[in-house]
Amino acid sequence: MDRNSPPPAPRRKRLTPVDIAIFAAVAALVVYTGYRVNAVLVYHWNWPRVLNFVLRYDPETGRYVANLLLYGLATTLRLALWGTVLATVIGIVMGYWRTVDNLTLRILSRSYVELIRNIPPLVFIFIFYFFISSQIFPALGLDDLDAEGPLVDNWLFAVLFGDPALLSNFLAGVLCLAMFEGAYVTEIVRAGIQAVGRGQWEAARAIGLSRTNVLRDVIMPQALRKILPPLAGQFITLIKDSSIVSLISIQELTFAATEVSSTTTKVFETWILVGAMYFVLCYSFALLFGWLERRAARSRR
Amino acid sequence: MPGRVAEPTPRDLRRREQAGSDVRMIWRRISQVAQAVLVFVLLGYLIWRGAAAMDYGWQWYRVEPFFYRVIDGELIWGPLVRGLIQTLKLAAIAGVIAILIGFVTAFARLSQSVSGRIIATCYLEAIRNTPLLVQLFLFYFVLAPIFGIDRFWSGILCLAFFEGSFAAEIIRGGIQGVARGQYEGADAIGLGVVDKYRFIIIPQSLPLILPPLTGLLISLIKHSAIVSVIAVSELTTAGLNLIADTFMAFEVWFLVAGLYLAVTLTLSICVSLFERSLNKSKR
């Protein structure tokens, strides 16, 4: 056996008295919490009131329709999707710049990464949001977007971008998140490119490929295999980080939860429910990506 | 072979090449530096133009009292400095608790105990799959009233539990990085579990644990900004209050960002210098 192999995995044991004591302690904690809530705080639980904000019964059509929290969830997913796409674009450009000889590009990408990674996301988003709403959007002319136009008024647009009336609000969130996550994607891409052996560069140059072709046909396909798994993880991180943009009034799940908790005053139910929604969402994505990765690894063999 | 000119050896070739490339290198460096300066001047100009176009009345002359004031020859720290100290204090307390949580969780996951592994896994997955902001709201709006915790401590506990999950993975990785023979050796000389970890395993895993753990503590300073949402007094909260008072949004945000940047960058440079000296002494 290899001398440097990790320590042996602990043998599986059955429940010991210590385990039973620990479980009993946890159970006691749960009971004590329940006692504090019901007897000391005298909290009146009202789950239907809050669940009503997930699915609402519409008496006119006689069907259940999505309500505030589900709309928020959809916006969160859209934010994460477009944020990842945009962050990947930023990350590929900046990550490539991190590896080039050109000093200017290296300084630019390095300062971008260090700047973003060393200030709190909250502070960055506050500053950047001011900048977006005062500079970029007037320049893009988004505020006078025609909500009735054929480009906007169709179901595909609604699926991809949500309510046209909230488009500039949504895009502000996407831009903030993408700028922020882009720094992390940059490092993922840089690591992926640098993980491709030097020999690959040299061989590709030796057979006479131009720099662009080397990058496109030789380096990137190999780097992509190293980039994809952490990028999938970054997508989950983005779902979580997107909760921060609720503070600049982007109407995603956390923002909806704040509204629901203040209108219903059922604070406990709302936050427990929203926490559970995020958990289910992120955990299922984590399981899905883990499964895909294992399958890809198996097919490569 | 007489009469023939001696072929240059590879070493000669390399030397000639280097002499040529030195001159070229210097030229390239100069042009690159010039290019870099040009780009940054351009960027600065664009930002300045943007600010001018916004008609924003910069009032930098008003920011000095944010840091300190001298009243009757006595130095009084301003809100930003007090906020920074509060942030560091918050991060320090949360960091200590996070490391404790990390050690307990790591050992629980590595142990043979069923309950330990189940609880540790539940904790890690719960923290990993929910946003920090939602965790903060859960701590502040749900747990704090139930157990009667004040806002300062609910902020600290939330941060500690959040960072503790990362610390747990770092510590577990470090402990598992110790070679198998060390465990067997410790067992062979008859050490108990506690002594085995105390004298053999932990000391050897520390070089693997410490660098990422310091990185974690630095990012804790950054993450602590989020507790401004529940109005715990710290740097970001001080910034928000100043903006509410003075309406100088950009000046204050730039100062706050600059303070965070200064603290985290200084700390990371210190850590990397320390790490380098550690590696040098090992070699």
From TrEMBL, chain A:
The protein's UniProt keywords, in alphabetical order, are: Amino-acid transport, Cell membrane, Membrane, Transmembrane, Transmembrane helix, Transport
Family of this protein = Belongs to the binding-protein-dependent transport system permease family. HisMQ subfamily.
Protein's job: Part of the binding-protein-dependent transport system for glutamine; probably responsible for the translocation of the substrate across the membrane.
Q: Any transmembrane segments, and where?
A: 20-45, 79-97, 118-137, 157-180, 231-250, 270-292
Which organism was this protein described from? Pukyongiella litopenaei
Q: Name one GO cellular component term.
A: ATP-binding cassette (ABC) transporter complex
Q: Which domain of life is it from?
A: Bacteria
Molecular function terms in GO for this entry?
A: transmembrane transporter activity
* Protein name from the UniProt record: Amino acid ABC transporter permease
Where in the sequence is the signal peptide annotated?
none
Q: Which PROSITE patterns match?
A: ABC_TM1
State the Gene3D superfamilies in the record. MetI-like
Return the NCBIfam families for the record: HEQRo_perm_3TM (TIGR01726)
Gene Ontology biological process terms in this record: amino acid transport
Localization per Swiss-Prot or TrEMBL: Cell inner membrane; Cell membrane
Automatic annotation (TrEMBL), chain B:
Q: Name one Pfam family in it.
A: BPD_transp_1
InterPro entries xref list:
AA_ABC_transptr_permease_3TM, ArtM/GltK/GlnP/TcyL/YhdX-like, MetI-like, MetI-like_sf
Q: Which keywords does UniProt give here?
A: Amino-acid transport, Cell membrane, Membrane, Transmembrane, Transmembrane helix, Transport
> Annotated Gene Ontology MF terms?
transmembrane transporter activity
What cellular-component terms does GO give this entry? ATP-binding cassette (ABC) transporter complex
What is one GO biological process annotated to this record? amino acid transport
Q: Which family does it belong to?
A: Belongs to the binding-protein-dependent transport system permease family. HisMQ subfamily.
What's the protein here called? Amino acid ABC transporter permease
Q: Which organism is it from?
A: Pukyongiella litopenaei
